[in-house]
């Protein structure tokens, strides 16, 4: 169905006005799916602090109430335990769609990328909300073009172990553009490159969280393969600024949101060692299948059209997450949902 505003249960509706956000701008009602997660909770903080109403939808698959507990009791904040694979009725102005099992150990478990994205696009269509998809650099697969521009179509294995994530996000991008073209939904697509910072899941196997937690626990850092593969690491506040600029701007995208500073895993281990404990060691482990050899965003499009570029380098950003990790590890909180 590509019509906008069909009749019946899910027909287009209007909803009552709301509190002012401050001088010169009407307050918005915004849904953040996956808002109890790492990136989502930082985004929610930013939206609440600028005066908007925020509704978080999260099933706590990898997210945690602790990431949002400081907002409980704020009348502009609501938290709904809900799986976006099921339909939901809400009346909102904007939808940031982040919900997704986002790391290799989790993402094979559910069809969130397809069914969840479809439901959020259906919601956006019904209420006339603007919809932002958080896609990923993984849509480029093991890239044959370096650095990756948004025009690159990618090199993805459709039947590999990672493909439920890569292809799930590719399908989510397709659905997003179909609703844009076919149903006039206002959409935005961000392709996010590896991001790190406080509140990252401790146990989801990503490299920055693994290395930082391992060094705090006085364990060796596990380098997969020969450690010469590269990634580009972005601090979370730079990402959140980029997401908001994209949502508020006039351009659909897709936009690469990332930090072009490129590091091998061995170099990353060295920076973690310098930052936290100069006696830290590494150990080599076999790499996972289909691991991309290199990844680095070309961010000229975001620079030109969104006027955005990252401000925080890896050496500046890593120390900003160490206290949060230390506290959670000391408290025995391994990042499980409540
Ligand atoms: P995260 O795991 O911390 O957050 C994801 C959130 O989605 C969690 O709170 C989880 O409970 C929730 N969720 C998962 N499935 C759900 C479902 N079916 N219904 C409701 N909620 C559900 O991960 P993150 O790093 O914050 O990632 C946020 C988004 O950014 C994801 O879409 C991810 O694909 C994208 N992204 C992140 C990175 C990165 O480096 N962090 C890189 C590329 C893309
Ligand atoms: N949907 C939803 N909330 C809404 C509107 C739609 O969850 O407010 C879901 C709906 O259940 C459907 C999906 O979004 O599964 C796509 O909706 P759309 O109206 O585009 O498709 P249709 O229902 O016409 O197939
Ligand atoms: N990696 C590693 N040690 C770890 C976890 C990951 O060397 O403990 C490597 C992994 O093989 C990959 C890179 O770090 O080459 C980034 O992995 P991550 O899962 O963080 O992100 P993605 O592969 O999605 O970019």
From TrEMBL:
Per the record, the pathway is: Nucleotide-sugar biosynthesis; UDP-alpha-D-xylose biosynthesis; UDP-alpha-D-xylose from UDP-alpha-D-glucuronate: step 1/1
Q: What is this protein called?
A: UDP-glucuronate decarboxylase
Please tell me where this chain falls within the complete protein, as first and last residue plus total length: 93 to 430 of 430
Its gene name is UXS1
What keywords are annotated for this sequence in UniProt? Decarboxylase, Golgi apparatus, Lyase, Membrane, NAD, Transmembrane, Transmembrane helix
Bilayer topology annotation: Single-pass type II membrane protein
Any one Gene Ontology MF annotation carried by this entry is: NAD+ binding
Q: Name one GO cellular component term.
A: Golgi cisterna membrane
The family assignment reads: Belongs to the NAD(P)-dependent epimerase/dehydratase family. UDP-glucuronic acid decarboxylase subfamily.
Assigned EC number: 4.1.1.35
The broad enzyme category this protein falls into is lyase
NAD(P)-binding domain ranges (all copies)? 32-319
Q: Could you give a single Gene Ontology term from the biological process aspect?
A: D-xylose metabolic process
**What's the cofactor?**
NAD(+)
Role, per record: Catalyzes the NAD-dependent decarboxylation of UDP-glucuronic acid to UDP-xylose. Necessary for the biosynthesis of the core tetrasaccharide in glycosaminoglycan biosynthesis.
List localization entries.
Golgi apparatus, Golgi stack membrane
